[in-house]
Description:
A hairpin with a 2-residue loop joins β9 and β10 (211-217). α3 runs parallel beside α5. This protein folds into 2 domains: 5-223, Rossmann fold, CATH 3.40.50; 227-293, 2-Layer Sandwich (Alpha-Beta Plaits), CATH 3.30.70.1560. The chain has helices spanning 44-52, 73-78, 95-105, 112-121, 137-149, 167-182, 194-200, 218-225, 272-281, 296-313; strands at 5-13, 19-28, 33-37, 59-64, 67-68, 80-83, 155-159, 186-190, 203-208, 211-217, 227-234, 250-253, 258-264, 286-293. The protein contains 10 helices and 14 strands. It is elongated.
Amino acid sequence: xxxxxxxxxxxxxxxxxxxxxxxxxxxxxxxxxxxxxxxxxxxxxxxxxxxxxxxxxxxxxxxxxxxxxxxxxxxxxxxxxxxxxxxxxxxxxxxxxxxxxxxxxxxxxxxxxxxxxxxxxxxxxxxxxxxxxxxxxxxxxxxxxxxxxxxxxxxxxxxxxxxxxxxxxxxxxxxxxxxxxxxxxxxxxxxxxxxxxxxxxxxxxxxxxxxxxxxxxxxxxxxxxxxxxxxxxxxxxxxxxxxxxxxxxxxxxxxxxxxxxxxxxxxxxxxxxxxxxxxxxxxxxxxxxxxxxxxxxxxxxxxxxxxxxxxxxx
Length: 314
């Protein structure tokens, strides 16, 4: 069964010769939340713009709801809502007029009841008749989402949805996205906030230099690439790691009070049991033990750095 968004070998080369997308292929299912991670200039916004019809691809094919974004532009675009990164709003316009105007741009029939319900879902109903210049930054971003959803699209693109908002508003936005998912909306977001992808996305795609490095379920990515650390608090500090423990991947922290043992979660044996025995043999007394999982940010940085190193080698 075809996905809601189907991308096959999409390419985008600008007139000057710069290739922003290099054979990107991706299938996004209905009702899925996909997060696109990548450094500045990686191609995230170019990919979204190409799917939305703002930029024309120079190679490959892209379909939304089965409609080709080039040959069947109107049908494809009618299924898409886009929330840009910039706060592009007319300051003297009211919330209501802005949302009604966006719906009209798509040729959708007037449906005030739907728009009222949309504003309620986004906690904007009590601001319905307020001018946009009177709203906070977080409220303005909600208006952008309302405008993007005004014609009841099946796919919503969020380009850096929480850029420039505080932590509380960011988590508020996460709740909004989760509720949209419950209604069956397919959501693709780009973000610089790793915790945003980790908290919300069903799958994560990592893009760098116009190439899609991987797309995996968030949990699978963490399990496959994540590493764990065993933090061993010692009863008494030591100056150096004893020679008898040189076979282990250990480092000393907290002024000699903590030993850190890094191990692969996918390995057949972690070596922890043997390490505990070796610590006892070395005369070290353990006060406490805890494990920590490597973060998605560490995984992401590692992937991009690996890609850069391979590119330099080539």
